[in-house]
Each structure stands twice: as C-alpha cells, then as structure tokens.
C-alpha cells in the first residue's frame, strides 16, 4: 500500500470503488476521468492526453473502441484500441467535453491544452480522502484493472495487449497477490497424502528394549 507517496498504489476493492464513484468524486468530469483510467487500465498521461475524436465519432456518439495514440504512450511503443464497456460508456455519454482548439477530452484551465497529470492525480487523492480510502494514488485504477483481469484468469499476453507494457515482467510487477490467493495456494497442499498414524502399528519394528535384555541385539552385532 502507498503511504506518503511511497510504495505501490493500493488495489481498490469493489466496495471502495462504489464509495469512490458515489461519494468521493464530485463532478461528472472527475467521474469520467477516473472511469476511463479504471475501465481501460490506461496510464494517467494516456488518459489526460486523449482527444475527443479518440472517444467520440463525428456525430458525438461514443465509439465502440477508445484509441490511445502511440505518441502518448510510455516509450511510444504502439497505438492501442480498448473496447468501451457499458459502464464506461455510461459516464462518457453523460460527460459533455468542452469544444476547444486543441480538442482534448479533458481540457486544461481556460480551455488551454489538457488537464495536467498532477491535477488528475490530485483529483483522485482528494476523492479517496473524502471516503476514507488510504494508500490509493492515480496508479490505483490501473493496478486494480490489471489485477482483476489477472484474477479472472485472463492470459497475461492478452492483458499486456491492453496495458501496453513492454514485456510480461513489467506487467507482473503491477499485479497484486491477494491474501485469499495465498491461503488458497497453501490449501492446495492438502491434496498431498499424509502419513496415516493408524498404519504405523502395522509395521513390525524390533523391540530394542526386549532384545537388549536377552542379549540378542548384542550377539547379532558381533
């Protein structure tokens, strides 16, 4: 868990996500901003640099797939297209982005450029503070999404296609191992066959004490 901006960002539970979106985030813009990060597993920078045309078609309808441009990705590796879930579509349909010359989905102050990454991070931190969620950061949405997909049994190679990680090793660092999974892993060891104490008596071990008394043990070792 992240404390004072140190450590890994918290993976949010279903209950915490519910609190965050019902009471923590106050505006449609803020809810949409965090919904994009949560339901696409994108990075903060990738979210704030989205253009309106990456999300809506010319008639203002939400696209079936959201486009994350190569130039805005970490390392500028490749353009990604992420299917838009109905949960995300609901927020995008409510959100009415302002028309600006730059055409960003989340415009900056006075319509210039896009909202800064730090500002987006601050929005999430303040929202978490309102609903007593400790240890969360702007990376929490991304870590939560990737961990949920992994726990659902989605192959890592497929998750990598969504997350945009350079390799699987980098992706695995994002994934949270839950305590219940550790307990489940240990419980799997119950499949091992234990020694049956009742069967120990079936073996005829020599009675050392009795043979010692008769001298048999001593004579057999000479």
Q: Can you walk me through this structure?
A:
The protein contains 12 helices and 2 strands. The chain has helices spanning 14-24, 28-40, 44-48, 52-55, 86-94, 117-130, 140-151, 156-163, 168-174, 179-187, 208-214, 216-220, and strands at 65-68, 80-83. Strands 1-2 form a two-stranded antiparallel ribbon. The protein is globular. Residues 1-6 and 210-222 have low confidence and may be disordered.
Mean pLDDT: 81
| Assembly classification | single chain
Shape: globular
Q: Tell me the major beta sheet.
A: 2 strands, antiparallel
Structure classification: mainly alpha
β-strand percent reads: under 5%
The low-confidence runs, each spanning 5 or more residues with pLDDT under 50, are 1-6, 210-222
What helical percentage do the residues reach? 40-55%
Tally of contiguous helical segments = 12
How many β-strands, per DSSP?
2
Radius of gyration over C-alpha positions, nearest whole angstrom: 29 Å
Strand numbers in spatial order across the main sheet: 1-2
Distance between the termini: 68 Å
H/E element order: HHHHEEHHHHHHHH
């Amino acid at each position: 868990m992240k404390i004072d901006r140190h450590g890994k960002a918290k993976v949010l539970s279903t209950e915490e996500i519910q609190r965050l979106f019902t009471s923590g985030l106050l505006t449609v813009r803020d809810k949409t901003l965090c919904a994009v990060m949560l339901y696409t597993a994108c990075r903060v920078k990738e979210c704030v640099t989205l253009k309106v045309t990456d999300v809506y078609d010319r008639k203002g309808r939400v696209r079936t797939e959201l486009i994350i441009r190569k130039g805005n990705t970490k390392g500028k590796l490749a353009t990604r297209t992420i299917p838009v879930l109905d949960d995300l579509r609901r927020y995008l349909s409510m959100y009415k982005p302002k028309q600006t010359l730059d055409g960003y989905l989340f415009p900056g102050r006075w319509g210039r450029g896009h909202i800064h990454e730090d500002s987006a991070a601050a929005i999430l931190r303040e929202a978490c503070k309102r609903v007593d969620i400790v240890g969360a950061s702007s990376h929490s949405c991304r870590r939560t999404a990737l961990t949920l997909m992994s726990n659902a049994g989605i192959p890592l190679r497929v998750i990598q296609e969504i997350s945009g990680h350079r390799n699987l090793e980098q992706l695995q660092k994002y994934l949270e191992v839950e305590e219940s999974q550790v307990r489940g892993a240990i419980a799997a060891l119950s499949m091992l066959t234990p020694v049956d104490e009742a069967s120990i008596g079936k073996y005829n071990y020599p009675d050392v004490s009795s043979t010692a008394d008769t001298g048999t043990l001593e004579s057999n070792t000479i």
